[in-house]
Design a protein that fits this description.
By secondary structure, the chain is an alpha+beta fold. 67% of the residues lie in helices and 13% in strands. The protein has two domains: 70 residues, Orthogonal Bundle (Arc Repressor Mutant, subunit A), CATH 1.10.10; 28 residues. The protein is built from six helices and three strands; from the N terminus they run ααβααββαα. The protein is globular. The termini are far apart.
Length: 111
Protein backbone atom coordinates (compact mmCIF):
# COMPACT_ATOMS: atom_id res chain seq x y z
CA UNK A 1 0.00 0.00 0.00
CA UNK A 2 2.89 2.36 0.64
CA UNK A 3 3.89 2.15 -3.03
CA UNK A 4 0.35 3.06 -4.10
CA UNK A 5 0.21 6.10 -1.81
CA UNK A 6 3.69 7.19 -2.95
CA UNK A 7 2.69 6.80 -6.60
CA UNK A 8 -0.50 8.81 -6.13
CA UNK A 9 1.32 11.57 -4.26
CA UNK A 10 2.60 13.19 -7.47
CA UNK A 11 0.24 15.27 -9.63
CA UNK A 12 1.82 14.13 -12.91
CA UNK A 13 1.31 10.49 -11.99
CA UNK A 14 -2.34 11.13 -11.14
CA UNK A 15 -2.70 12.86 -14.50
CA UNK A 16 -1.13 9.86 -16.24
CA UNK A 17 -3.64 7.57 -14.50
CA UNK A 18 -6.50 9.81 -15.64
CA UNK A 19 -5.24 9.74 -19.23
CA UNK A 20 -4.90 5.95 -19.22
CA UNK A 21 -8.25 5.42 -17.47
CA UNK A 22 -9.97 7.58 -20.08
CA UNK A 23 -8.20 5.87 -23.01
CA UNK A 24 -7.47 2.21 -22.20
CA UNK A 25 -4.68 0.88 -24.38
CA UNK A 26 -3.22 4.32 -25.03
CA UNK A 27 0.30 4.30 -26.43
CA UNK A 28 3.11 5.37 -24.13
CA UNK A 29 4.17 8.00 -26.66
CA UNK A 30 0.68 9.50 -26.67
CA UNK A 31 0.76 9.84 -22.88
CA UNK A 32 4.18 11.50 -23.08
CA UNK A 33 2.85 14.05 -25.56
CA UNK A 34 0.54 15.48 -22.86
CA UNK A 35 3.47 16.68 -20.74
CA UNK A 36 5.95 19.49 -21.15
CA UNK A 37 8.68 17.46 -19.47
CA UNK A 38 11.05 15.04 -21.16
CA UNK A 39 9.91 11.62 -22.33
CA UNK A 40 12.33 10.07 -19.86
CA UNK A 41 10.71 11.93 -16.95
CA UNK A 42 7.27 10.69 -17.99
CA UNK A 43 8.60 7.14 -18.43
CA UNK A 44 9.95 7.27 -14.87
CA UNK A 45 6.50 8.27 -13.62
CA UNK A 46 4.96 5.42 -15.63
CA UNK A 47 7.46 3.00 -14.05
CA UNK A 48 6.50 4.16 -10.53
CA UNK A 49 2.83 3.58 -11.40
CA UNK A 50 3.64 0.13 -12.78
CA UNK A 51 5.68 -0.77 -9.69
CA UNK A 52 2.69 0.19 -7.54
CA UNK A 53 0.45 -2.03 -9.66
CA UNK A 54 -1.65 0.91 -10.89
CA UNK A 55 -0.65 0.55 -14.55
CA UNK A 56 -0.21 -2.45 -16.78
CA UNK A 57 2.04 -2.09 -19.82
CA UNK A 58 1.58 -4.46 -22.76
CA UNK A 59 3.91 -4.75 -25.73
CA UNK A 60 2.40 -4.90 -29.18
CA UNK A 61 5.42 -5.23 -31.46
CA UNK A 62 7.42 -2.06 -30.86
CA UNK A 63 4.39 -0.29 -29.41
CA UNK A 64 3.73 -0.23 -25.67
CA UNK A 65 0.15 0.23 -24.53
CA UNK A 66 -1.00 1.19 -21.06
CA UNK A 67 -4.00 0.03 -19.06
CA UNK A 68 -5.29 1.22 -15.68
CA UNK A 69 -5.47 -1.34 -12.88
CA UNK A 70 -7.94 -0.18 -10.20
CA UNK A 71 -7.37 -3.17 -7.89
CA UNK A 72 -4.75 -1.51 -5.62
CA UNK A 73 -6.99 1.53 -5.10
CA UNK A 74 -9.97 -0.74 -4.39
CA UNK A 75 -7.91 -2.65 -1.82
CA UNK A 76 -7.10 0.60 -0.01
CA UNK A 77 -10.75 1.60 -0.13
CA UNK A 78 -11.85 -1.78 1.22
CA UNK A 79 -9.35 -1.66 4.07
CA UNK A 80 -10.82 1.48 5.64
CA UNK A 81 -14.45 1.33 4.58
CA UNK A 82 -17.22 -0.69 6.17
CA UNK A 83 -20.26 -1.94 4.26
CA UNK A 84 -22.43 0.70 5.93
CA UNK A 85 -20.11 3.59 5.10
CA UNK A 86 -19.62 2.38 1.51
CA UNK A 87 -23.31 2.92 0.88
CA UNK A 88 -23.32 6.49 2.20
CA UNK A 89 -19.92 7.38 0.75
CA UNK A 90 -21.26 6.45 -2.69
CA UNK A 91 -24.28 8.72 -2.26
CA UNK A 92 -22.22 11.61 -0.93
CA UNK A 93 -19.73 11.26 -3.78
CA UNK A 94 -22.58 11.31 -6.28
CA UNK A 95 -23.94 14.52 -4.77
CA UNK A 96 -20.47 16.08 -4.78
CA UNK A 97 -19.92 15.27 -8.47
CA UNK A 98 -23.36 16.63 -9.44
CA UNK A 99 -22.70 19.89 -7.61
CA UNK A 100 -19.26 20.24 -9.19
CA UNK A 101 -20.72 19.60 -12.64
CA UNK A 102 -23.49 22.15 -12.07
CA UNK A 103 -20.92 24.71 -10.92
CA UNK A 104 -18.78 24.01 -13.96
CA UNK A 105 -21.76 24.42 -16.30
CA UNK A 106 -22.77 27.64 -14.55
CA UNK A 107 -19.20 28.94 -14.77
CA UNK A 108 -19.02 28.11 -18.48
CA UNK A 109 -22.37 29.84 -19.04
CA UNK A 110 -21.06 33.03 -17.41
CA UNK A 111 -18.35 33.41 -20.03
Amino acid sequence: MDAVFAALAHADRRRILDLVKDSPGVKVGDVCSHFGTSRIAVLKHIQVLEDAGLLIREREGRTKRLYHNAVPIQQIYDRWTTEYSKHWAGHISSIKYRIEEANKEQHNGDK
